[in-house]
Design goal:
By secondary structure, this protein is mainly α. It has a single domain (5-196, 213-424), classed as Growth Hormone, Chain: A. The chain is 73% helix and 1% strand. The chain has a two-stranded antiparallel ribbon with strand order 1-2. It starts with a helix and ends in a 15-residue tail after the last helix.
């Protein structure tokens, strides 16, 4: 196992705590805590909050293009991650110190630049630690990498909402945003400590341009992006756990397992289920499925698309019951999270590893950034839909269950089409040459 892996995993756990802790409370902060410069309440409507959140998430997953360009052509992955991590920390500071729309815009902008800029570099840096002699360990390490993401996310999503809603001295929006900032600083320090353990793949410089515009590489990237476009539809549904699902949970009976949960804490179910489901899928479900038919990465992704559809059908039923005046128990959302997380294991982990192995050697960060823009496309689609359906009085043209049924229908049509696309895709695997870690 490469010696730099523990530092990468530790850095990722702390960074994901910072990101998901901040993201978990955004919808509530925008609709209940936002103030004007004078200190008066300046709360957003639910459709406006959805537009802000999904626009922000789309920016987080678009800026990886910038990070990949800087990394692969000029600075290399290590320096790019270190510098942009400091920008990331500044974004958290802006949110913690200013609870107006100006502070929100500045903070989210800096976080989008920092978090997005390091994304393709961090995941590509994982793969760079491996060569031909240990490439068989890549799948295991990407699973641990994803495990660390969700470990940090789970803890943050349980803790940060309690700080936001708390009544003690160290509670409220300022402290709820400050703690993720502290964790991001710790993540930066952990990464710096591993600087002598990593394999450092140098930037390509001018060769980067030649590699990028090489006809064969452009063809590979083009074929990959067809796959990414379908993955974007999955993210359009998944990322609504931070917006529409959170707002829906606020209208439900949140007593479950003898505890009253906040509406934001339900998001912790996703990373908790990830921690449980990764080993189950890796050691039980995948081997059993592979005995029935060859389980290729694209088949995993296709199955995941179909698994995700029932979650929005169930969300539509919940919304229908709310519209009738009932308060369904959040146990129904627990079921939705379990199904959606199963789909995430099939789609997201698989697509992350697939994107790395299919990328030409000198374009790993760039291709990872192209994969991440699939999230941008999905969230821009959600933001665009909410912008289109919002009426001037703050109501919506897709009320109640119809909103969720619309997205379920979009994913169903996409899932059918993906079957035919996946059959035509010809995979080509590229692994880095063996490079020894610094002594």
């Amino acid at each position: 196992m490469p010696p730099g892996v523990p530092y990468i995993v530790g850095n990722e756990a702390a960074e994901r705590f910072s990101f998901y802790g901040m993201r978990a409370i955004l919808a509530t902060f925008m609709t209940q805590y936002l103030v004007s410069a004078s200190g008066a309440a300046d709360h957003m409507s639910e459709p406006d909050a959805k537009i802000w959140i999904h626009t922000f998430i789309s920016a987080v997953y678009f800026t990886p293009l910038l990070g990949a360009l800087i990394s692969d052509a000029f600075w290399g992955k290590y320096r790019t991650i270190l510098v942009l991590s400091l920008v990331y920390c500044a974004g958290h500071a802006a949110l913690a110190l200013n609870d107006t729309r100006g502070g929100l815009f500045l903070g989210l902008g800096l976080i989008a630049l920092g978090a997005g800029g390091i994304k393709p570099c961090v995941s590509a840096n994982v793969g760079d630690q491996f060569g031909p002699s240990n490439q068989h360990l890549i799948s295991r390490v990407f699973s641990w990498f994803y495990f660390s993401i969700n470990f940090g996310s789970a803890i943050a999503t349980l803790v940060i909402p309690k700080i936001l809603h708390g009544k003690g001295r160290f509670s409220g929006a300022h402290y709820a945003f400050a703690l993720p900032g502290v964790l991001m600083f710790i993540a930066t320090v952990i990464f710096w400590l591993g600087r002598k353990k990593f394999v450092h793949v140098p930037p390509a410089g001018k060769e980067f341009v030649r590699e990028t515009f090489n006809k064969a590489n452009l063809k590979i990237i083009g074929h990959l992006y067809v796959i990414f476009a379908f993955v974007a539809v999955f993210w359009a549904l998944f990322d609504q756990t931070a917006s529409s699902w959170t707002l829906q949970a606020g209208k439900m009976d949140r007593h479950w397992l003898g505890v009253e949960w906040t509406q934001e804490q339900l998001q912790a179910l996703n990373p908790i289920f990830i921690l449980i489901l990764i080993p189950i899928f890796s050691y039980v479900i995948y081997p059993l499925m592979d005995k029935v038919f060859p389980l290729t990465p694209l088949r995993k992704i296709s199955i995941g698309f179909f698994v995700a559809i029932p979650t929005f059908l169930l969300a539509a039923w919940i919304e229908h019951r709310i519209g009738q005046g009932f308060h369904p128990n959040i146990g129904w959302q627990v079921i939705s999270y379990l199904i959606l997380t199963s789909a995430e294991v099939l789609v997201s982990i698989t697509a992350l590893e697939f994107s790395y192995t299919q990328a030409p050697k000198r374009l790993k960060s760039l291709v990872m950034s192209f994969y991440l823009t699939s999230v941008t496309l999905g969230d821009l689609f959600v933001a665009g839909v909410n912008l289109f359906i919002e009426n001037r009085d703050g109501t919506t043209k897709l009320p109640g269950a119809s909103y969720y049924l619309f997205f379920a229908g979009v994913l169903f049509v996409s899932s059918i089409a993906f079957i035919f696309v996946a059959r035509k895709y010809q995979p080509h695997t590229f692994i880095q040459d063996e490079v020894p870690a610094p002594a």
